[in-house]
User: Fold these one by one.
Assistant:
Number 1:
Amino acid sequence: MLRYWTAGESHGKALIALVDGFPAGMEIDLEMINVELQRRQGGYGRGGRQKLETDTVEFLTGTWQGKTLGSPLTLQVINADYKLERLKELDRPRPGHADLTGAIKHLGSIRGVLERASARETAVRVAAGALARQLLRHFQIETIGYVIEIGGLAVETPTGDIASRRRERDASIVYTLVPARDEEFRQLIDRAAEEGDTLGGVVEVRVEGLPIGLGTHAQWERKLDGRIAQAVMAVQAIKGVEIGMGFQAARLPGSKVHDAIHFDSSQKHLPHLGYTRPTNNAGGLEGGMTNGQPLVVRAAKKPISTLRKPLDSIRMDTKESHRASYERSDVCAVSAASVIVEHVVAFEVACALVDKFGGDSLEEMLARYKLFLDMAARI
């Protein structure tokens, strides 16, 4: 079973991810992981901390001569800006953050809660997800994450292969697929900054090249849609997840929702084995399993909780009304969210791939994958 855990606080010395169950024999591309870490720090509307950090990953265990060993992998991202011991306690919790609830839960301080609750922790989740993406690429499975809406301003999602979509996304200051509209987003974010406010938005992740049958219908906790939803909802500030048509499916009759099944013998050699669909309203998942179509996941990110013009709060010691505390923060981090969500989705897909085809070595997985496709094509 492939899985991971993270440790470390926002202002600690380092962030750590422990990845267990990763197959042996895969050469690690450190540059690819570091590029994704840098993308997570980018996007218009980010705050001052991103100028202080230059995130890179280091593997402390689980590798030999640049390849995975099959033993637990320890990934480390150093915090250049660590000063936890010198920071003062917050005495006024920020609405929308974990401050109040966490301090009461642990009968302790707000500071200790906010440093762990910070989205800074997602740096090592991106690193683990980028490692998983490298595994997926050996099976010709590719992912992309991008922004489709910020502050109520939405853009279309043009068609095209993932490579062309990545070029468009990487040309955009906010990671949409339509860089020609960047100036609209710049003005929107600048206006929010001038007003001391913050903005949220919607991101979308697409995974292509998936075979039929990752995940399961047999155990509720192993259904792939459930695992993806949990992983995405566990990203800081995410308040909603959709797969495929999502909530719109509840508003239409079944004839307008479900994807008809066709067969094209000329495509039997592809991972979907020739089973095609004229639509993809299910978002590539049926019954908790991949159906051979592209996986499409959307996530709604709320505006950042820390406001330069704070909302009403209280003083913890006196319970008297007061404006909330202010901590250094972003105006808009939706671009970063698109990177994070892409990588947590990629990790869950890789988990399902390892579950299906075994995880002792990459060579063994590839052989089992080929055998499965050959056998499934005869059904």
Number 2:
Amino acid sequence: MTKKAVIIGGGISGIYAMRNLLEKRGALKEEFNITLIKRENTGWVSVCGLPYALRGWYEIDKVVINDPKFFREKGVDFKTEADVAQINTEDRILKLKSGESLEYDYLVIATGRKPAMLDVIKNSNLENIFTLSTMDDARKMEAAFCSGNMKTALVRGRGIIALQAAVAAAEHKIKTTVLAGPPSLLPAGLDPDMGDMLKDWVQKKGIDFILDNKPITALKADGTRVRSVVIGQGGETEVPADMVVVSMGMRPNTRLAVEAGIEIGDTGGIVTDNSLHVKKNGCFMKDVYALGDCIEVIDGITLRPKLNQLASTSVVQANVISDNIISDITGDPCLYSSYKPCTGPVVAEIGGLHFGSVGVTSEAAGNSGIKTISGKATKLTKARYFPGAKPLTMKLIFDAFSKKLIGAQMISEISVSDRVNEMAVAIHAGLSAEDLINTERCFDPSLSLLVDVAVDAAQDALGIKSVY
């Protein structure tokens, strides 16, 4: 009997679920059909690459990995410019807004996220108000950048996308202001002392910051185009803005799930079990899965629900879902996978500065009742006499009682991705500050230091002062 899997969403989560099912369906004896439903008229797009395209590093079209035709030729019913109107889990049917109905044996919800839009912006019909979530968004922003009419910009938000959008605008000689809440940047990954390092760097790029809780209360226009943003209930601050970019409070896109009666958690994301089945009427559904930005996960440190809207998280979740669908079809329990609590390793380049983090911040730990100690150190990445040596600042956060590593943050002018991955492994392995100090590391003066910055940071956390 033919089995049918339908995937709602063509972002990285949906694409990877589809790819994995394609790769693993060879293990099946029966026919297995895959349908993917995507609103945009695009295939596999690296959305994370869009901010760099806006900075002129490459053309926007370069972020297209595979077009829809590529997947259709592999036998996928890849539906573009299609939108789901309703999920009927009782009858296992999807209804599209076009009127078409699709039956499924397995449903994968990968509806992603959407920026929180303030009412004053959401209800505005003014031109030059942007978000940055799709290729179309990026093309509209690029056209605005290149029009020659944009002299000022306001970016609402302090996350990675917001800051990268601000840098892109500034590099197009547009006077840019970032409006966000206090006290510092990237609060999900960086403590204020580390976030302030990033802020100082970005300010040198000519970007201004307004970090307080004052809301946008009005938009002023010149005809149909926005010209300034009024901040504060009393209208005490007016910021010139020929364009506004909204990238704040990315919320799970759960409308379809809510209307289908699927349970939503306190974080606003879809509730799943460790198989990534969704929950309805108090029970987890064997034939309906969800993954990616639209679900909540369990934090690997606090063991509390949270959102972890990262592409790398989606890839792991897609592996779990595809394994479990194939396991269910074949009846082979050896193929089953389980999704573990996550630590959320993240890296990004913002205006020439690289940041990375994994685990919890000091604030997140404190909010969960975890007492911490932390240490920080700044050292060069290789011997001072070698060209290209750059400083790297690392902050390590440990459980105050066990001394186990629970968080790491770092900032440098060079890539920190390998170090973030190293610290992610250290957290999963339950390494302590003493373990990090006594771990043997490679050394060559052209590539590294004899005593690594991680050792100094761990020693600082334990109150061990270096004599050098």
